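Quick one:
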Amino acid sequence: MTVKTILIGMRITLRYCFAKTVTLQYPDVAPALQPRYRGFHFFEIEKCIACDLCAKACPVDCIYIEKTGPRKIDKETNIAAGGLMTRYAIDYAKCMFCALCVDPCPTECIHMGNIHDMSGYTRKDMIVEFTDLAKEGLQTPQPLWMNSENPPDWAVKRKKEWEQYKNSQDKLTGAEAKRREEMAKAVAPGA
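Output:
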C-alpha cells in the first residue's frame, strides 16, 4: 500500500515536472483576476455613516475611524449627512484581506477592490487614509505603477474605470461630478 501511494505521488510530480510553464509578462499583461477576488478596498465615503461596524468586525484591528458627529443616511439620495469623517484609514501592513469588514456594513460603502499589488517604502506608506483620497476624488489607493509616465494599456483602462466610479452602482452612477462633490462634503467643513 505504501509503494502504491508513493507511485501515485511521483506520477503527479512527474506530470507537473514536464508540463509547459506559463509565464505572465506582468506588468505588460494584466493578471487575470477572479470575480470574487479580494484586493485592496474601495470605499464610498459619501455613503458611510461611520457606525464602526467594519472596525469592530476586523480581527486584526486595522481600520481606524474618526468623525465629528453622528451621520445618517438620506433614504432618497442614499448619501450620508450629518457629522464629518475626519479619518477613515486602513493599515494594509496588518490587513489580511478576509472581507469581514465588508459584510456588516449597513450602507454597503466598503468593498473589496481589484488592486492586486501595492508597494511602499515604509510602514507608514501602508496606511491608506481614505479621507485624503476622498479629497482628491478617489475611492481606492493608486499603486505606484499607476502614476508612471507610460503605464500599460490595461492599467490606463483600469485607472479610467476607477476615475469613472465603475465599481459604485447606486443613484450617483454616471454623475461623477456630483459624486466628487458629495465625497468632498463628507470630509471637509463647508464644502
